[in-house]
Amino acid sequence: MQSPTIKDVAKRSGVSLKTVSRVINREASVRTDTREKVERAIEALGYRPNPAARGLRSTHAYAIGLVYDNPNAHYVISMQEGVLSACRERGFGLQIHPCDSSAADLAEELSTLVSRSRLAGLVLAPPMSEQDELIATLKAQDICFVRIIASREDPQDGSPCVYVDDRDAAYAITEHLIQLGHTRIGFLWGEPHHRSSPERFQGYSDAMKDYGITINKKFVLPGNYAFDDGFRRARKLLALKEPPTAIFGSNDEIAAGVLAAARSAGLDVPWDLSIAGFEDNPFSKQAWPALTTARQSTAEIGRHAALRLMDELQRKSNGADNTLGNEGFTPELVVRGSTSPPRNSAPRHSAPGHSAADKKS
Q1: Are the beta carbons of 191 and 160 closer than 8 angstroms?
Q2: Which residue intervals define the domain HTH lacI-type in the entry (predicted)?
């Protein structure tokens, strides 16, 4: 059976091919009743625009790129799924482009990618999205992009973005451990060039400070977002004369490595050691016990970033001067079996001198 064409949509809705094209491209000049009539015809026929064909017939590009440099396969796959869902919803194609965020010629690489592949714009994942020099170069070349960044609030710096409040989520995780009765809490960093790492450390250190707990510098170790590195650093912490009773890994892969280290040392998790991670990827659900973590909807973040990019493309196409708002996400604390009160310790319930509102300020 032959797939419906744009001509079929025009015939069914009783409008011109040009009007159907305007509706598909979400141009603001189309009247509401006409738009609805065309959309009903599209739905009834099951018509799906062909981004490649649209690109060949038009001066406009109908594909976007997702640019990332992240060793975490679960993060990358979820991000791809989210961006792809937005592309299908709006009739865009998608090109995936892994790259080396530390490459000296990264800006040139992305510029070439956009021109050769005729991309309308880019979704930039961390850490590229957080490189000021790269962002300035892309702006100077008039390349449309949307960043995904770690930030407590909308940076309002003129660059469209979706921002994730890692700090408050990390605060909630640390507060949960403290309220269980833990005071000796270790923290394992991810790569420092990912802004999520210092943001998550800030949440940890702010919670410790608010509860009047001095951070033991021996309990805070640099490293990267990897299982093996989590295992290595946890072994180091557990070898201390007075080891931590809880360890907060900056992501779930690190936390899973901590869990493996605890098992290899013969410890009973969570009673001998509580463990928390971040992101709620499959590591957290498949571990035993399952990991306490912060649920970060990576697919939704990717989807909203792609939609934000498409809205920005439409705004520029219409010559509009209005500034579109950015969207923020805060990962949600998920308590599972990997955390409990330490042995022979009474849990705490509130931070001395701080209300819940104070701690979120």
Answers
A1: no
A2: 4-58
